[in-house]
Amino acid sequence: MICIVVLVCTTFQLMASDSTSVKEGRSFELFEWGFSLGYGFVNEPLPEGRYEPFLLLGHIEFHAHRKQRQPDSPHYFLLFAEPQINPVFVNGGMNDWEAGCNIGLKYLIKMKEINGLYFHIGSGPQYISIWSPEHQANGFAFSNNFGMGYQRVFKRDVTITFGYRFRHVSNLDLQLPNLGLDNHFFTVGFKKDFPRRAQQRRQNKQLIIEEE
Hints:
The protein has 212 residues and is α+β, with helices and mostly antiparallel strands. It is 16% helix and 57% strand. The chain has a single domain, classed as Porin (Beta Barrel), CATH 2.40.160. The chain has 2 helices and 9 strands. It has an 8-stranded antiparallel barrel.
């Protein structure tokens, strides 16, 4: 919950304080969508076995100012959302699952235009199906995340990402037991630039209208 409050306050501060003129950038555009996979290499030990979720993350990312900063800006903040439905392996079997949506803030540092380093923090609601009587109750919980990674733009509108993230899941003692579930993940994913496609469609439509 503290993460959510910090994210909201930071977002409003960013939107209110920046009066920099804007231009369309060639990389790291205004709005991107994509998909990521996450493999847990350090997982929470439970009496029933290790809690090993395999992350299946949707990804929506956009700039907080609706328009992009100067294309030569070396760094800036982005907002993102990650809806997810994740299978969970315990003691070698896929007997459980979890679902939720992580909402967060990302800090991107551009390097040589097509490369970038990023750091992110997020939080969101999470449902977990596992019931571990000595460790964690099932049902509604919160997922808190932070991590870092590398991204590279391929072609003109596709970005590949490689990252690390730590995740803690617990339920604020709404149900007991509530010892929490901690996992460390390697992630790999892609993002696709939506505005460039939309702009191309608008330009093609305008050309057809002018020809008529």
